[in-house]
Amino acid sequence: MSQSNLEKQEAKLKQLNQKIKAEKYKIEQRLGKQIISQANLEYTNLSNDQIKLLAQQFSEFLKEKTVDH
After folding, report:
1. Quick one: which of 10, 6, 61 has its CA closest to 38?
2. d(Cα 65, Cα 9) in Å, to the nearest integer?
3. What is the pLDDT along the chain (69 residues), one digit of tens a residue?
4. With contact defined as beta carbons under 8 Å apart, do 43 and 36 qualify?
5. What residue spans of the chain are helical by DSSP H?
6. Distances, alpha carbon 10 to alpha carbons 5, 14, 22, 45, 69, in Å
7. Which residues fall within 8 angstroms of residue 36, CB to CB, at 6 or more apart?
């Protein structure tokens, strides 16, 4: 393959990776919003420590549900 083709493929790969990263971010944002909304939590009352604790508790809950199947 010529250098030009490799450079084009690298550019396409980089662009695809950026799209994947952007989609992951969107999903994370929507998931977080839904969790906060469903739990009737206030954004203004959530500290970083509280967010980490909630995430840990949610993770443990999901792990338990996965094991139950």
Report:
1. 61
2. 42
3. 688 999 999 999 999 999 999 999 999 999 989 988 998 988 888 899 998 998 999 999 999 887 765
4. yes
5. 3-38, 48-68
6. 9, 6, 18, 44, 42
7. 43, 46
